[in-house]
Amino acid sequence: MSALLDVRDLSRHYGALRAVDGVSFELAAGDVRALIGPNGAGKSTLFKMLMGETRPNSGEVYFGGARITGLRPARIVRRGIGRTFQITGTWASMSVAENVQTACLAHDGRTLSILPYARHLHRERAEALLDTVGLADQADRPAAVLAYGDLKRLELAIALAGEPRLLLMDEPTAGMAATERTDLMETVTRIARETGMTILFTEHDMDVVFAHAERVMVLDRGALIAEGTPEEVRADARVREVYLGVGLDPEALADA
Ligand SMILES: Nc1ncnc2c1ncn2[C@@H]1O[C@H](COP(=O)(O)OP(=O)(O)OP(=O)(O)O)[C@@H](O)[C@H]1O
């Protein structure tokens, strides 16, 4: 089967700094892949290039067999790549359901300004998405009052409204309690399993990575230094060196 995402020799340099340096990998439909690496390894820069927010100096990105290198972000989103952010981008003054309805309208290419006249539009779709992420009972509450973990779920529902085939998640569990992390990642992996959506996520919590990723890629100083199952990556001498060197919990790599 051909790859859904095919990244070929992608590089982005800032002066002498090689933020991303000749990175190549493929993702197939339904893959759940983690991208890890110490601070400054190049994870965000790689995501930004995949979304069209940063232009690569060299290399190519193919999605669904078509070259998307250099396309603007909005066009890449329309091709089927979605993204969630470390900071939630919800509308505090709207209800939880309205936030998702707005995302559905945007996916339809309609303007947000019609929302006050169209509170019923996409209500059913929004409710289905909220059910998928476990927020059905919060639909009519203002987004402003949601607990942090629920905000991250709302953000996931908003991303799903765009019907992405590939969802890039930038530290999806940052700031969450341990049990909330597991719950959210179980929701994400269930959605991937049920819909065939592909997930690429960055994560600093090694417990989350080893419990929920099928495969893991490790970036260090812009270069991919390892790619494999959680067991393979955990046993990789270079990965251990990189992580032991920056003070991340070595226990997580040793025992997880
Ligand atoms: N616009 C920019 N101009 C100059 N340098 C940049 C720019 N964006 C990123 N960098 C540098 O590129 C390197 C990679 O940064 P990047 O944010 O991609 O790392 P990261 O792995 O996402 O880090 P973190 O885990 O801390 O988010 C860093 O050294 C960073 O300072």
Automatic annotation (TrEMBL):
Domain ABC transporter: 5-246
SUPFAM superfamilies: P-loop containing nucleoside triphosphate hydrolases
Entry-linked InterPro entries: AAA+_ATPase, ABC_AA/LPS_Transport, ABC_transporter-like_ATP-bd, ABC_transporter-like_CS, BCA_ABC_TP_C, P-loop_NTPase
Cellular component aspect of the GO annotation: plasma membrane
The keyword Nucleotide-binding is assigned to this record: yes
Keyword Transmembrane among record annotations: no
Entry keyword set: ATP-binding, Nucleotide-binding, Transport
GO MF annotations in UniProt: ATP binding; ATP hydrolysis activity; L-isoleucine transmembrane transporter activity; L-phenylalanine transmembrane transporter activity; L-valine transmembrane transporter activity
Protein name: Branched-chain amino acid transport system ATP-binding protein
Organism (species): Roseivivax halotolerans
